User: Fold Short-chain dehydrogenase/reductase 3 from Manduca sexta.
Amino acid sequence: MKVYQGVALALEILVLYIKMTLTWFHCLYQFFVPQEPKSVSGEIILITGAGHGMGRETAMRFARLGGIIVCVDINPAGNQETVDMIKENKGKAHRYECDVTDRDAVNALAEKIRREVGEVTMLVNNAGIMPCKPLLQQSVKEIRSTFDVNILAHLWLLQAFLPSMMERNHGHIVAMSSMAGVVGLRNLVPYCATKFAVKGLMEALHEELREDPRDFSGIKFTVIYPYIVDTGLCKNPKIKFPSLMKILTPQEASDSIVDAVRRNYFEITIPSSLYYINTICRLFPRAVPIYLKDFLDSGLEAHT
Assistant:
């Protein structure tokens, strides 16, 4: 019996090794030969924070590709501007105002969208806020608001729109994290905590659906980790080498976001080089990459 169990275990390990090796080569192949971008024509794409910045630019790009855009923002004026810009370019867009931190309001919004537009097939959790000051100077209200907008709203929207995706085994969840979700930065302690949480949320949700006995392989996930983007949130950026780590425009960031979604990438950094730099640095003892971080000397100064 012990011999049989030993042989069985050895075979399982061999199969595991073969699977991991083949998958590694497949991923390497896809790195050099990316898969063709998928069509988003006819997809109903809900984007939070669509009234400005990356939300607006991403909405406009998906609309140009034939997506039906559901613009959600708490700011009516900015939201309407986005809808008008999409329609001026012959795109399809609908405007809804909602406080995404209010679970009841999100559920009511979901029902209204189902009646007036249809079932959402792509959810882009983009809305976010970024108080920038030392932790001990942040008020209770600022900290709670950061968590409400940056992470809890993701959960309320997922609970509202994921079930219909699961019923059809079709959908795409996009979550906006940040490089502050993979590297801790001063003046952004609560913000970093929420963006690290977004990473964990998406990884855990992916595993929850992957390990479910039902087939949910048609639901894709993409996590975005942008560096500093000029959306108005970063008021006092600190960059030692602007040519190496330049501030991105919302247009540049949105181009990368849309491309990543269409290619079903699970995660990307913007710019893409930061993904590999961070991965390599994580292989070293923690004290080693701190020297690189100090050398690059970039981040955000406290807002006044």
User: Anything to note?
Assistant: The two ends are 72 Å apart (CA to CA). The chain has a mean pLDDT of 90. DSSP finds nine helices and nine strands in the chain.
